[in-house]
Write a structure and sequence with these properties.
357 residues, alpha/beta, Rossmann fold, 6-stranded parallel β-sheet, 12 helices, 14 strands, 16% strand, globular
C-alpha cells in the first residue's frame, strides 16, 4: 500500500500527532508513506526525522496578532492561484490512498482526481454534533471544507455520542525526582511583552515556550527555544500548564493529570470550540485574557484533576489503515472509548446545565 500523507504544519499539534502515528505505522512493512507538510515555512520545521525525505508545500495558514485571528489579513495572504497550482501539480500517480491530517493540498488533490481519501485529525470531529460556537457560520463552513475527504476519523476528548475517536497521545514520561514544580507556559498566539510582564508579577517559576528569542524576562521566567524532547520533559515536570486552546497539547496535559489554564485564540473557530468543550466537560479553567489577576486566581485554587488514561489510538489507527480502512469508524470508536479511564459519561452536563450541542 502506497500512501501520500499530508499534515497541516501551522501548529505543532498536527506534527506531534503524526510523529506518534508514524512510529505505529512502522510496524507494517507493506505500507510505504510519502509525507507532505504545508502551512509553515520549511526552515521553521523541527523534529522531522521520523518523516524521512518529506515533501513541503506553501499551502494555507492563518494570520494572528495579539491573541486574535485576523480574518482580512488571512484572506489577503491566501494566494488562491498559487494554492490551485500546488493542488493540480501534486504528483499523486501511484498512490493507493491519500490521507490528510487537515492538510488542504493533499485533500483537494484527492477530491479533484477522485482518489480514495481519509481525513484523520481533530478538525474532522466538527463534522459531527459537538460543542462549538454558534455565532460564526462562515468559519464553521470554512473549517468543514478546508480539507475534505471521503472518509474521516475525528478525534476529541469526548465522543459526545458520535463516532469520534479519543486523542492520539504519545507515551507520557513520568516526572523527574528533582522536579521544581514550575508552571509551563505555551502561548504562541499572545503578545509576548504584556504576557511576560504579567508573569513577572507572580511569585512562581515559569518556563515559557513559543516566544521570540532575545526578549527580556524577569528572574522567575525561563524562555526556551522549540525542542520536542525538552518540551516533553518540562511538561512532565510541570506543576500546571497555561496554554491556548489547541487540541493536542491539552490531550497530553490531561494524560499527565496537570491543571490547565486555557485562553483560546479569539475568533479562531476551532480554539473557540475547544474552549467551549473544555468548559462544559470541566477539564480546564478557561479565561478570555491572560493577566496577573486571572493567573493568580487560578493558582490559588488549583484543582486536582484526574489523570485520563487514553488508549493507544495510534496503534489502532495504524492497524485500521493496514487493513485497508475497512472497519466502520463507529466500531473503532466504541472499542477505543471502552479503554478510556476514567470512562467518560454518556451525556456530560455543562456547568450552566444546558444541553451540549
Amino acid at each position: 500500500m502506497k500512501i501520500l500523507y499530508g499534515v497541516q504544519a501551522t501548529g505543532n499539534g498536527h506534527i506531534a500527532r503524526s510523529r506518534t502515528l508514524a512510529k505505529a505505522l512502522e510496524k507494517y512493512p507493506q505500507i510505504q508513506i510519502q509525507w507532505l507538510f504545508s502551512g509553515r515555512p520549511r526552515e521553521n520545521l523541527f523534529g522531522m526525522e521520523p518523516f524521512g525525505d518529506f515533501w513541503w508545500r506553501r499551502g494555507m495558514t492563518f494570520v494572528h496578532r495579539n491573541g486574535k485571528l485576523k480574518s482580512l489579513a488571512t484572506l489577503r495572504q491566501l494566494r488562491p492561484l498559487h494554492f490551485g497550482k500546488e493542488v493540480t501539480e501534486l504528483p499523486v500517480t501511484g498512490f493507493d490512498v491519500i490521507i490528510s491530517d487537515y492538510e488542504p493540498i493533499t485533500a483537494w488533490a484527492a477530491k479533484i482526481r477522485k482518489m480514495p481519501s481519509v481525513g484523520i485529525g481533530h478538525q474532522y470531529a466538527f463534522l459531527h454534533s459537538i460543542p462549538m460556537p454558534r455565532f460564526n457560520w462562515l468559519f464553521h463552513t470554512i473549517l468543514r471544507s478546508f480539507a475534505p475527504t471521503k472518509k474521516s476519523l475525528g478525534l476529541h476528548w469526548h465522543h459526545f455520542g458520535n463516532p469520534i475517536l479519543p486523542p492520539i497521545v504519545p507515551p507520557q514520561r513520568e516526572p523527574d525526582a528533582d522536579t521544581g514544580g514550575h508552571i509551563l507556559v505555551y502561548l504562541p498566539f499572545e503578545d509576548p511583552v504584556p504576557m511576560l510582564e504579567a508573569l513577572s508579577r507572580i511569585d512562581r517559576q515559569f518556563i515559557v515556550y513559543g516566544v521570540a528569542d532575545g526578549l527580556a524576562a524577569a528572574d522567575n521566567i525561563r524562555l526556551k527555544a522549540p525542542s520536542t524532547v525538552g518540551f516533553q520533559r518540562d511538561l512532565a515536570n510541570a506543576k500546571a500548564v497555561i496554554c491556548n486552546s489547541g487540541f493536542e497539547l491539552l490531550a497530553e496535559t490531561m494524560a499527565l493529570g496537570k491543571p490547565i489554564l486555557s485562553r483560546p485564540l479569539a475568533y479562531q473557530f476551532e480554539q473557540e470550540a475547544n474552549a467551549k468543550a473544555l468548559d462544559q466537560l470541566q477539564l480546564a479553567k478557561v479565561v478570555k485574557r491572560i493577566d496577573a489577576d486571572n493567573i493568580n486566581a487560578w493558582l490559588h485554587a488549583l484543582p486536582t484533576p484526574q489523570r485520563i488514561q487514553w488508549p493507544n489510538v495510534a496503534e489502532a489507527i495504524a492497524l485500521w489503515i493496514a487493513d485497508g480502512c475497512k472497519q466502520n469508524p463507529a466500531e473503532l470508536a466504541r472499542s477505543l472509548w471502552r479503554q478510556v479511564t476514567p470512562a467518560p459519561t454518556e451525556s456530560p452536563t455543562p456547568p450552566d446545565g444546558k444541553r451540549i450541542r
